[in-house]
Amino acid sequence: MSTASTKDRINSLQSTRSFSASTKLKTMKSMKLIQKSSSINNKKSSKDQQLNLNDAQRFVKLRPENGLMGSSGKYDCCAFVIHCPVHNRILINHQDHVVWMPFISLLHNLGWEDNAILGFIIIISGGDPDRVNTFKEHPPYEHFMCMQVLRLQMPRTMRFITRLIYYFRIKCSSSGHSYSQFQCGQNTDNLEWVSVNEITKYHNFWGPELLEFVNNLNAIKETRITEYSMEEVFLYVPRDPPRNLEEEMLKPIHITEKDVERLYEDFLVHCYPSFAMSIESFKCYMKKREFEKNDSRLVRFFRGFNYTKSNFISFHELLLGLACMEPTIQHGKFRVKFIYRFFSDDSGIMNRECLRRALLEINSDPNTIDTRIKQAMTCMNVKEASNGDFIITERDFVSAIGNLRFRGTSVLCRYQKGIFSQISRALVAKGLRRAEKALSNVLIKRRYSGLCKPCKDKKYDLATHSVKFDSHGNLKIKRIISKYQEDSAISQNNHRKEHLTAQQYSIETVFNRNSAANIIINLVRDFSNNKGTVRNPNGLMQDRKEDLWKLLLSINGELELLLKNEYKCHKIYSPCFIMGDIHGNIEDLFSLEKALWKQIPCIGANYLFLGDYVDRGQWGFECAMYLFAFKILCPNKVTLLRGNHEVRLIQSNYTYKRECINKYGDIFGLKIWELTNRIFDKLPVCALVDDCIFCAHGGLPRSATEIEQLIKIKQELKDPERESRAAWEILWSDPCHMQQYLEVADLLNLNPDNLNGFIKNTKRGTAFLFNENGATNFLRKNGLTHIIRAHEVPPNGYTFHFGNKCVTIFSCSHYCGNDNDCACILADTQKLRVIQLDTVNNSSATD
């Protein structure tokens, strides 16, 4: 960029909205912070400075030159490569005992280039307001450009922070003197001009960026843009089955994605604004883990961590290096290579002295060391040179240990306390302290302000009924509201159900023994003892078809009013019991009732059913009627989702349509079948528990990636395959492990890397299979943690996918000749608990 255009830009900063009064105020504030910091440092005694240096060595944190940084330590910033071509000097930043690049935090009401220009002026002016004004009038550089844009995703959020690196070339005259009363050799307390050729003499760099960009001053012609998302962070996490050597190594130490995420946050806060660890940075980091900063082992640990041999440690090198130190880690190939690097010399080679050091750590007896060295040489097929030394290659070292020729190395380089659990506990405790401090501040502000409005608005009324349980746990209902009050309350709205208050609904429906829902519950309970057999099933009210039809019409009207207020993605809260497929298994349904909700309607938890109430089993209609009535009696506690068998076309090819006709004849049978399907058309297709658990019958949709898209699906879907692709995919999709995913991709001749974790569901012939990548992306994008679904028959009634991210649950035992169990899940107190029911004495509902 030319100087003329730069001068115009600086002038425009003062005349346009981009350089507003608030921006000037922030700039002045940063100047004052710099001046204040300088004056305080000048007044300190040498003793205080030494004390401050010791503290800095323990907790180094680089500070921006404009003094503006967030309390979290994560903020947008701009670093500078400021170069004087005449003297071939670079401006470097000394803070505490480390060296990096001068940098500022970004002002969010300015653009990147405006921030860069303003930051450059602040840095070279040393915070002097007079010099700032001078440099605004006469910019002391002839060229600048953005060398790098690095975007780093923040943990637990979709937000990114940005680090810019700008190059500025100082403007000099032909005689070698700088314009604008500026000389490149003028050092300050923490800024120093050094020769480009001498930059490598420093060994206390905070990160690799200064060396990287100074060594490539003439090579970088365009901006490099890099993004590091949480997807890269989770490149190595324990998976089943493991995809590579690193994941196989991580599996035994039982770390989770949360542990990896916490470590990433700790790494980011420690290194920033750099994004890698130098040896100096690594020593400071390990001191937090109870190592002494001068511990000679830290240099060797650094070498062991740095498997890329770049002299700087990336996040994944830190993750895998710490894992290698765990006391429970398996002694595999990756860890053996770690040990080789740890004991090798500065050139990365293991010689006699290195081997001697390793053997003494295995067994400290010095009297046998020479004998053991010779034995180790024999194990590794190493020959001694004429000078008595030898070289052991990494390949020979790994081979000897892998083939059990060289033993005893498994005790080396282990940290006895379990460093991962220590880091996780420390970071969780830090987060709790921060939250506690924030909460205490809020409470202090509210201490004398009285109750908040929501609390004031809460009023408790006496319930309209009391309940009594007999010795068998059966519910007895007793009214405590007067007849006059009851009649008055009901007459106010002329019995219009859509306008009933909660009290009126309770009187008319929930605690009214003669309501259609209560009648159906009792009828189905009585029917379960006389249901017939699989080969000769009876039907509910089979000899009173017209009365049954009237009951069904009655509850249909009530369900329409309830379901029209539920989105296709319905939100519910814990505690919540989650049930899988029922498939007409009335005995298992009543086993669930007896265990979980016997005291209808007085239930304390929420109940979520994942669909497939009909088909396959002989009593699909009775199960559906029971669940419809359950929903009416507990409208805010019971959620019924739609399954792939709650679709007319599927039922026509399976058993439910035939079941209705066989039990109730062609006329009433078809009418009953159609009316129950009209109710199915209005059911939600998925649900969120506590805004973090995605629940559905089948799985994830490929055609919709956000929950908001699912909420907007239209309320009634008569033919979901044609009317909503996302709803259809939710009903039919299945999870698959990576091997199955790759096999299907190979079968279909597709590149698996271009499919975003979804591939055609060849097993079902419709919808998609989704792998762990597809599941992880969906969960992260929507801020979710788990998936609970049904749709498949695990032998134990449940199974896990992708570690524990996805659970399949099935609540119909003895399904289609299988010997599977009946199970459900309880979501409560941030735990997912699997519950298996003993249904060994229940009969199969399928032929």
Automatic annotation (TrEMBL):
Catalyzed reactions: O-phospho-L-threonyl-[protein] + H2O = L-threonyl-[protein] + phosphate
Alphabetically ordered keywords of this record: Hydrolase
InterPro entries: Calcineurin-like_PHP (IPR004843), EF-hand-dom_pair (IPR011992), Metallo-depent_PP-like (IPR029052), PP1_catalytic_subunit (IPR050341), Ser/Thr-sp_prot-phosphatase (IPR006186)
Enzyme Commission code: 3.1.3.16
GO CC annotations, alphabetized: cytoplasm; nucleus
Domain of life: Eukaryota
PROSITE patterns hit by this protein: SER_THR_PHOSPHATASE
Hydrolase as UniProt keyword: yes
Family annotation (Pfam families): Metallophos
Matches recorded under CDD domains: MPP_PPP_family
GO MF term set: protein serine/threonine phosphatase activity
Family of this protein: Belongs to the PPP phosphatase family.
UniProt xrefs under PANTHER family: SERINE/THREONINE PROTEIN PHOSPHATASE, SERINE_THREONINE-PROTEIN PHOSPHATASE
Protein name: Serine/threonine-protein phosphatase
Species in which this protein is naturally found: Dermatophagoides pteronyssinus
Gene name in the database record: LOC113792101
